[in-house]
Amino acid sequence: MTKPFTIILAEINDGSTAAALTADLEELLGAVQRSGRAGSLTLKIKVVPTKAQSGAIDKVNVTAERKLELPKPEAPVDFYWLTDDAQLSRNHPRQQSLELRDVTGSGVVNSTDLKTAT
Questions:
Q1: C-alpha triplet 17, 23, 24: angle, nearest 5°
Q2: CB 3.0-4.6 Å disulfide test: which of 17, 33, 79, 110 passes with 12?
Q3: Predicted model pTM
């Protein structure tokens, strides 16, 4: 009967792989809880045969590779208009501009002459 995977995992690198996976999982769970976004933890077990002098395979090297992908924050979005020649513009390319100026303090209009919309 084959030894259970959990026991083999606990034995790899004298238990340091299992301890590192536990720490990775704890970090992943916390990041998912904080961000509300998905992440992943991947374990890859690589088994490489080693031949004896007789040519028989009597030994293997086992490597455990961990890959932790924490949730990435959502990238901020910025809005631009696209011009006819495919350039980005902050201003609508087909909208006329309206020249606005501050009339208070310019001597052009007395601030008491300004009306308030009701």
A1: 85
A2: 17
A3: 0.62
The closest of 61, 59, 56 to 46, measured between CA atoms, is 61
Tens digit of pLDDT at every position of the chain (118 positions): 889 999 999 999 999 999 999 999 999 999 999 999 999 999 999 999 998 788 888 899 999 999 999 999 888 999 998 988 999 998 888 887 778 877 666 655 565 666 777 7
Q: Count the neighbouring beta carbons within 10 Å of the beta carbon of residue 24.
A: 17
